Amino acid sequence: MSVRVARGFDRLAPFYDSLARLIIGKGIKQSQLHFLNHLRDKTKLLVLGGGTGWILPSLFEINPKLEIDYVDISPRMIVQARRKVLPNNNIQFIVGTEKNIPQSDYDCVVTNFYLDLFDNDKLDTLIPQIRGRLLPEAYWLATDFVSISRWHKIMLWLMYYFFHVTTGLRNRRLPSWRIKLTEAGGTLIDKKNFSYDFIQTIVFKF
Ligand SMILES: C[S@@+](CC[C@H](N)C(=O)[O-])C[C@H]1O[C@@H](n2cnc3c(N)ncnc32)[C@H](O)[C@@H]1O
């Protein structure tokens, strides 16, 4: 399963960002940049499912001292992400999944369009597993889809179908990612919607 997903995202890697921009519009990036200022005073960041790494220059611009562990299942996504950083940036790239998160203590984590890859049952174990690596008062920035209208549901159905066909992704429904973060003990600090409420970006404190 993981190998197929990795190969699928490898195939998408060269045009993933352009495709996302074409389908969702500029909100796809604006949403992920919106709360980065909350990371200004943080020191150790875990990024999961980071993709092509387009966000990395903005992260290091906000906080040049940030130390980042950057995990993605797709080797080609990681190759692209490596090209986005400067030699003096403190970042470790890891081709892998949640099973390969380094044994470190993090004071912040970023999951953008990552929690939607899993179903609710998986999030019941995955979120506490990630939470177990967080220091007290850590911030969790998450950006993901919301399904509150008919066109959201249609878009999500189409997108899950696309990812199922191209990457073998098994999950076909948007999980209750915000509820799961709350159930894991997170306190909502801030939130904002983008792209006609199709995308929500949130900051949780753990
Ligand atoms: C929908 S893309 C989002 C990429 C990026 N966060 C963005 O918003 O531009 C999901 C990313 O997660 C990666 N991925 C999929 N399953 C994963 C897993 N189990 N562990 C880590 N990364 C995974 C994919 O390779 C892909 O880069």
Describe the 3D structure.
Helices cover about 40% and strands about 25% of the residues. By secondary structure, the protein is of the alpha/beta class. It has a single domain, classed as Vaccinia Virus protein VP39 (Rossmann fold), CATH 3.40.50.150. A seven-stranded mixed beta sheet has the order 3-2-1-4-5-7-6, with helices on both faces. A hairpin with a 4-residue loop joins strand 6 (about 185-195) and strand 7. The mean pLDDT is about 95. S-adenosylmethionine (SAM) binds near residues 97 and 113. S-adenosylmethionine binds near residues 71, 73, 97 and 112.
Task: Throw out a few tags for this protein.
206 residues; alpha/beta; Rossmann fold; 8 helices; 38% helix; 25% strand; binds S-adenosylmethionine
Describe the structure concisely for a colleague.
With 206 residues, this protein is an alpha/beta fold. It is 38% helix and 25% strand. It has a single domain (2-205), classed as Rossmann fold.
